[in-house]
From TrEMBL:
Heterodimer of SoxA and SoxX. It holds the Pfam family SoxA-TsdA_cyt-c. Heme c 2 binds at C165, C168, H169, C215. It catalyses: L-cysteinyl-[SoxY protein] + thiosulfate + 2 Fe(III)-[cytochrome c] = S-sulfosulfanyl-L-cysteinyl-[SoxY protein] + 2 Fe(II)-[cytochrome c] + 2 H(+); S-sulfanyl-L-cysteinyl-[SoxY protein] + thiosulfate + 2 Fe(III)-[cytochrome c] = S-(2-sulfodisulfanyl)-L-cysteinyl-[SoxY protein] + 2 Fe(II)-[cytochrome c] + 2 H(+). Substrate binds at R211. It comes from Thermus oshimai JL-2. Its cofactor is heme. Heme c 1 binds at C65, C101. Its EC number is 2.8.5.2. This is SoxAX cytochrome complex subunit A. One of its GO terms (biological process) is sulfur oxidation. NCBIfam families: thiosulf_SoxA (TIGR04484). Binds 2 heme groups per subunit.
Length: 255
């Protein structure tokens, strides 16, 4: 059987057996904490903080960067991304804004930016939004256009199996019952707030970009590149539809 079929199968089995994935994640977290004394999420956040305070070729640190709420302000900033930035004239998400900061402010060349460092920085910056509400807006035409693209991509179907995100991620029952059209995108538990996260099932650190790329991979669709427009568009669409959700813990700890 293909990998994606297995994934869906296992998810359904867990559901049928009543194994709550959240409870299971909590249990795994406790276990790790007991054996290692520290969580992998905390280690990555620490690493991200060190990178944040490291001077780039320009002699500046990331404290000189604006993540949307002003230079060096991190508290709650990640909960308001993606958003349009005047200085780049683009909508940027957390990952993309980190790359902008590393290249434009710290002076690294684009090819010098390491993905693992971007993820560690994303973990650190996101950790400053725990307890904050997701607040993403569509004020600028660029944001509205990207949202429209994300919506299109989410409902588009393609490939040999003719499936797309919505095939697996929309609860049709609710839609028929006439609930707000997108209130149920990716379920009621506000999945936007699950990422960035540490995945204990395969010991990986992922941001939302990794999550979305993996889902494209699962359906045998070519994976859009990191920082590409389709990824960003889907992120904006998902974030907007998760507005108001409170971030329980960033980075999260998931299966
Ligand atoms: C074949 C079914 C399938 C398709 C199609 C699919 N996904 Fe997924 N997706 C899953 C499964 C299963 C999970 C949960 C995986 C896990 O728990 O490890 C998931 C998880 C996710 C999550 C994380 C949800 C959470 O609560 O943490 C996001 C976001 C997501 N998918 C986005 C997408 C997007 C965007 C697309 C379209 C490009 C897509 N998915 C297409 C099956 C699918």
């Amino acid at each position: 059987m293909r990998v994606w079929v297995w994934g869906v199968f296992l998810a359904l089995m867990a559901f049928a057996q009543g194994t709550d994935p959240r409870e299971e994640a909590k249990r795994q977290k406790e276990l790790l904490l007991q054996t290692a004394g520290i969580l992998p999420t905390e280690l990555v956040v620490q690493q991200g903080e060190e990178l944040f305070n490291r001077k780039g070729p320009s002699g500046k640190t990331m404290a000189e960067c604006d993540f949307g709420l002003g230079k060096g302000v991190l508290e709650g900033a990640a909960a308001r991304l993606p958003r349009y930035f005047l200085d780049t004239g683009r909508v940027e998400d957390l990952d993309g804004r980190i790359v902008t900061c590393l290249t434009r402010v710290l002076g690294y060349k684009p090819q010098e930016v390491k993905r693992q460092e971007v993820v560690a920085l994303a973990f650190y910056i996101a950790s400053k939004s725990t307890g904050h509400k997701i607040q993403v807006r569509l004020l600028f035409p660029e944001e509205r256009a990207l949202y429209a693209l994300g919506e299109k991509l989410f409902y588009a179907r393609s490939g040999q199996r003719d499936i797309g995100c919505a095939t697996c991620h929309i609860t049709y029952v609710k839609r028929r019952a006439g609930v707000l059209p997108y209130a149920d995108v990716l379920g009621e538990d506000k999945s936007w707030t699950h990422w960035p996260a540490y995945r204990y099932s395969n010991d990986q650190i992922w941001t939302m970009q990794d999550r979305i790329r993996a889902c494209y991979g699962n359906i045998g669709h070519p994976q859009p590149n990191f920082y590409s427009t389709p990824i960003l568009a889907l992120e904006l669409f998902l974030a907007y539809n998760n507005n108001g959700a409170v971030v329980e813990e960033w980075p999260a700890f998931v299966r």
